[in-house]
Amino acid sequence: MEDLKPKEHGESTEDARRTDHERLVSGSLATDGEERQSWDSEWCRLAYWELTQRVGRQFGVRLRAVDVFGGGGGACGSGRHGLCLDALDQRGDSQQADQVKKTRAKIGLGVTLSLESDGVWLYNRSQEPVFVSSPALDAAAAKALLVWRVAPGHCLCIFDPSCPPPAVSLPHIGPVDPRSVRISFAKGWGPKYSRRDVTACPCWLEVLLAPPS
Questions:
Q1: Which of 111, 161, 159 is nearest to 135 (CA)?
Q2: What does 179-205 look like in DSSP terms, one character per residue?
Q3: GO CC terms on record (predicted)?
Q4: Alpha carbon distance 177, 167 (integer Å)
Q5: Pairing label, strands 82-84, 65-69
Q6: Using the 8-state DSSP alphabet, how is residue 65 labeled?
């Protein structure tokens, strides 16, 4: 599959597997009442969600690579550059707490997002798969967006700035933000899962890519 390449250190890679078509909530959820007009030198912003609730503020990214990881084993104090999810103020009711806590415990080393010469790449450094939906993947699928499964130790190009997807409006969904990528840790969503939408996933990330200059 042309969107895949080996992870660093020469590790081999297999195809990231995509699930059936899934229906996404239209537009971007990440603003959540937090309006930030100027991007300065940021190439993306990160928003972390637990189910339908935003946790913490948007995290602006200026360096070309950023880690998003859990705090197990003292990782939050290890000097790694990036977003430590366990350092965020956790909110949510007690009924949601168990499934969120169990999923967060699996995030571990999490993922690395890297702005490279041929696009934005996601590297899965955790011991669990991550699931990705990006309008830049399978843009020709006019009726729905796809969810891709990225196995541990594998990677996927989630956005190519030289070939940005057009703004589209999908049936039963409405307008789709072409520069918003959604990543769920450990839990997939779509027609073959009990979770039909990303907002039913316990721990997930929205990546907002900067508009073209």
A1: 159
A2: TEEEEEES---STTSS--SGGGSSSEE
A3: heteromeric SMAD protein complex
A4: 7
A5: parallel
A6: E
Q: Which two tokens stand for residue 155?
A: 């990677």
Give the Cα separation of 107 and 128 in Å (integer): 7
8-29+44-209 folds as Tumour Suppressor Smad4 (2.60.200)
Q: What is the pLDDT of residue 126?
A: 95
94's enclosing H/E stretch is: helix 94-104
Q: How far apart are CA 164 and CA 181, in angstroms?
A: 13
The DSSP annotation for 101-161 comes to HHHHTTTTT-EEEEEETTEEEEEE-SSS-EEEE-TTTTTT-TT-EEEEEE-TT-EEEEE-T
What is the torsional sign of CA 195, 200, 206, 212?
positive
Residue 99 identity: Q
Give Cβ neighbours of residue 153 (< 8 Å, ≥ 6 apart): 7, 11, 13, 124, 125
Share of the chain above pLDDT 90, in %: 47
